[in-house]
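ok so I'm stuck.
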Amino acid sequence: MTRINTNVSSLIAQRVLGQNNFALGGSLERLSTGLRINRGKDDPAGLIASENLRAEKSALNAAVGNANRADQVVNIAEGGLQEVSSLLTELQGLLTTSANSAGLSKEEKEANQLQIDSILQTIDRVSGATSFQGSKLLNGSFDYQVNSVDSGVTDFKVRGAKFETATQSVDAIITASAQQAGLFLSFGASALDLGGSGATDGASSSFVIEIGGSLGSRELQFGSGNTLAEIVAAIDSFTDITGIDAAVSGTGIVLKSSEFGADEFVSVKIVDDATQTGGDGIHTLTASDFGTATSAATSSFAAATTTIRDDGQNIAGTINGLLATGSGKTLTVNSDFLDVEFTLDTSTAQTLGSVAAFDITGGGADFQLAADVNISGKVSVGISEIATRKLGSSSLGFLDDLASGKAFNVVDGNNISTAQKIVDQAIKDVSSTRGRLGAFQKNVIGSTIRSLNVAVENTTSAESIIRDADFATETASLTRNQILSQASTNILSLANQQPQQALALLG
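replied:
not stuck anymore, here's the structure
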């Protein structure tokens, strides 16, 4: 059948040519853009997945930038702290030199005090000058704000805290009390009685005792008639060497460690008891009352030829439900949400029960180190004020007490040993801050950057698999579509010529 008005073959050829040209255009678009998905209709589900991956990749790259920025902030803070450490080391040497009082003139002491004053002023200047883009790093700007401090808390440090409420309460439950080490020496009188009164009996003999503590030991010798007060005075004169304090208690003497904790101990060894006639010997102290001796002696003086020893006890407890580490009267907890340390006074540290230590109301340096903006992706670090009025402790004193005219200036020779302890504590404070920031750089920032970079790589790979064009496949498809398009064009030409055959019928 031959028809002129309707060329069905041509219509079919046009439709197929259009389809082939459309497929050819798609191949050309994918090859020119490098993308398999250029619009939603190319792959609706794939577009959704790839857009989500793109957003995630952008957030990950931003988090990497945040981590690098945090690293630079800590680097600048570390630079300031390093200089403060050097100044404190020099200060320690000046104190040791100034303690050599017999070998120094007044002018030399005054020159040393001038250097000490200069060091203290420089520490305060470094504290106020260390900054990042105008933000002061060591002047307390990044320290945590705290209020409602319990009267039983003598010192505290907040090194890290993450919370989304207005305040974060820090509450402790004391489960074991802090204790000193202690022993009771029962003499039964207010003075030694070594027996007899002649040269051939105990009157001329000596009571020789060796007393030891966490700092060292000393052997002391006493004679008949020495009062308990005289013995206590002799023992206390060596407190800086032994770490032991003594006190008269009734007809005996209580020996106790100067500090609290499991590292403290008191030991007694009787080298020669010279037949001490009074008392019943050496008692330990009861667990429930440190001021009370046990009813029965642990050893008589005559039998105490081997060392009798008592150890102290660390405080123990929990902070905000987390098991805390105890050291003396100090509790410490370190977690990803809370990193605090505080010291209690003696009464509070020895009372079992709850302590509402303080409330954290804000502050700290917050760094967003994850792609998702939430509390788990945030890292908070506290940088306390590195100033002379803050370095030290409330029990010893603070670094600014070493300045001219203050309590521990070297010109007047005011208790240089205490001044050195203050500097020791200041060195520990600064070193602790440097170590904590160093750990933050190495273990938090460093590992975060590495893990984020891996996440960026994997996310990019996943997004590429979904969205990017496979050039080998698309090139083959292009070639096929080109051939089909050319063939369709030729067929359309033939189909358009087919109605001309009708002219042959008209003769």
